[in-house]
Amino acid sequence: MLDPQQADEIPGVNDPTLRAEIAHTTACALVREAHAHEDPEVVERLVRLVETEGLDVVAALWADSAPETLPGALWRLYVLREWVRRDPATVTLRFRLGVVHAPVQEAVAGASGPSPEDMLRLTDAVLSGVFAGDLAVALERAGAFCRILAVGAAFDADSLDATDDARAVRMTHRASSLIRTAEELESCAHLWRAGMLD
């Protein structure tokens, strides 16, 4: 894969239409080829794409994609997995706070427990489902996971109101962003089922 600097040197790559075409082509090719071959090694490599290629490479491909597109959905899934991988303690805390108030979302997300290892297993299973399972189900699971984390972030923000108002406000904004991401992923699942996710 090209690094972002090499990609920027390709003539015309800064053209928004060409960038969108590259994003859609690469996202569709990855999903289609992974499903066609059903090779566990390939799926494992795709799940660990950010670890091997770097978040900046994946961002160069898909970060600018509209949220309700296949590359936009893949970008959100990889960012979610990377957050779990880099900050498992925070994600686990938010999950524990949120899951008490979102038991239906817990069932949809399918987490086996509230440990950091469980959180990483969940995001790996979601990404595996993208490439070797039902994409719509994987997107719904990720959306449910985001909803649980949003509830946890909101409760965490409430606990900070009296002691650190600025941090509580930032956390409330993060909760709102997680809800928006959940809605986008769930919308992508609906579009995929309708054959309209490009």
Describe the structure.
The relative contact order is 0.12. The protein is 79% helix and 0% strand. It has 198 residues and is mainly α. The chain has one domain (4-193). The protein has eleven helices and no strands. It starts with a helix and ends in a 5-residue tail after the last helix.
Indicate the structural class. Answer: mainly alpha
Mean pLDDT: 90
Overall tally of domains: 1
What shape does the CA trace take?
globular
What is the radius of gyration computed over CA atoms, rounded to a whole number of angstroms? 17 Å
The helicity comes to over 70%
Summarize the structure.
The chain has 198 residues and is mainly alpha-helical.
What secondary-structure arrangement, pairings included, does this model have?
Elements: H1 4-8, H2 16-37, H3 40-47, H4 49-53, H5 55-62, H6 70-86, H7 88-99, H8 103-109, H9 116-132, H10 135-160, H11 165-193
Helix pairs in contact: 3-9, 5-6, 6-7, 6-9, 7-9, 7-10, 8-10, 9-10, 10-11
Q: Keywords for this structure?
A:
198 residues, mainly alpha, DNA-directed RNA polymerase subunit beta
